[in-house]
Amino acid sequence: MEKKRGKLLVIGFGPGAFEQITERARRAIEESEVIIGYNTYVDLIRGLLTTQEIVRTGMTEEVSRAQEAVRQAEIGRTVAVISSGDAGVYGMAGLIYEVLMEKNWTAETGVEVEVIPGISSINSCAALLGAPIMHDACTISLSDHLTPWDTIAKRVEAAAAADFVIALYNPRSGRRTRQIAETQRILLGHRSPETPVGLVKSAYRDRQQVVLTTLADMLEHEIGMLTTVIIGNSSTVVYDGLMITPRGYQRKYTLNSEEQRLRPSERLQVAAEPWSLSAKEEAGASGEAKSVQPDFPGPASYSSAGSSSPLEAAMEALQILEAKGIVSGGCAGSAPSAATNLSAPSMAANPNALFEVGVAPGIANKKFTARQMALLASIAGEQGEMEYTPHHQIILRIPGGDPEQVVAELKAEKLLVFPVGDVAQIKACDFCNLEKDGSIPVAEELNRVIGGLKTPKELKIGFNGCGMACYGAVLEDIGIVYRKGAYDLFLGGKTIGRNAHPAQPAAEGIAADQIIDTVERIFREYTDKAFPGERFHKFFKRVGTVAGFRHQEQPAVTLADAVCGD
Questions:
Q1: Cα–Cα distance between 136 and 152 in angstroms, integer?
Q2: Last residue of a domain, one of 214, 244, 274
Q3: What is this structure's pTM?
Q4: Is the pLDDT confidence value at 486 over 90?
């Protein structure tokens, strides 16, 4: 009996939403006997799975997934290897072929391979932002786990100098925090601080977030492994909450008039394109610098000191056309209004934006009233959501909400409102149902002084009102425990991960009139000197001393392999 030929289906399923998965990808999943993928990716397509065998692994297990896929195909099975986005863009397609190459595979005699394309992040995120990649664009991964950082930095430098729109993949993780800051520094050497930047997290998934900002301010926003960063070129503008990169049509066409100065037969002639290579060659052949026709000026060579950007060239062309009466009502010939100003980025609200805010009934009070809960439900409505968190807040998310109005309504109902993300948060206990209230004023004053302020990474300050510390203040980044009329201070806790550990005892018996100043000094030193995205416990270890308190090495923790395989 002839052995069945196995098949590898390398599938890119797009951003994650079912409607964004191509029909071929759906059929490939259905016809597969085995599905192999990263845990999160398997969960995203679970609704399409029926009786397939599932092989799922964690991060850094890409090679083992590829090897297992090849092994299963070699015994005659139809195997789907899944990637989000496009399997050929930082996905599994290349690795599958590399493993096959090591086995001297050939398409004629080996297992059958089909790579099924999907929508990559650069495309899905661009669609949410507007049209930022209408002109030449490139993708760069900032992960230096497999690629030397020096190589990545050279690519960023080259792309920045060549005025590419740049999509940054894998911009930041828990371990990699400095790469995005270094990338920003390189880009600012070539581009205006006001260059529009789009940050899209979890495109087309349940917790999608879209932020429009600038190159100068991009690090003020949350950026993580689920974020794609799209950086505009010198022509990119923000208009009505959308990020748009002109293709260059303004050079030859009038966009607000049906009548075009150039007939169709004239539009591709060299005379109409003085910026083209053909025009430069003609000028060189004649031995003289050919003057640019004033009707359609183009930028000089980008390497010259006096070069203008494509946007400046387009605006100059519009001015000339308006002076000739060909364009009317445009913004080139007069001071543009806020609605038509294309040269200055506008931070108008994006219709896809998600307003996110933390809400609590108080610093010490943990009890919401029925009226308060009803208000939260009313504000969230059908499209929004309320998420319970272990940080004594409810996170309220509202698509396209009016932030000022929402905050005003919440405060009117005596609710505390907090920013969400990389900010300082006071996590106080309930002070034994408000009965041990001696230190509540200090907790509330500490929240007033630094609560909600921007930090390099989210900073949790635990505050317990007695020596029992039953709310776990000593596990947080900074812990404060009220005991015998004074305050004990703990620094550098780590609450998550298999190597989690409590904070180190830093001081005992700090007086009430000194504790807030002490914590504020620690906070200021952290915000001033930490790397972007650097957690407090890592910062404390790196610098050795914070506000006079010295770091002590924790005993090494031996990590055993988990039974679950994660």
A1: 19
A2: 244
A3: 0.57
A4: yes
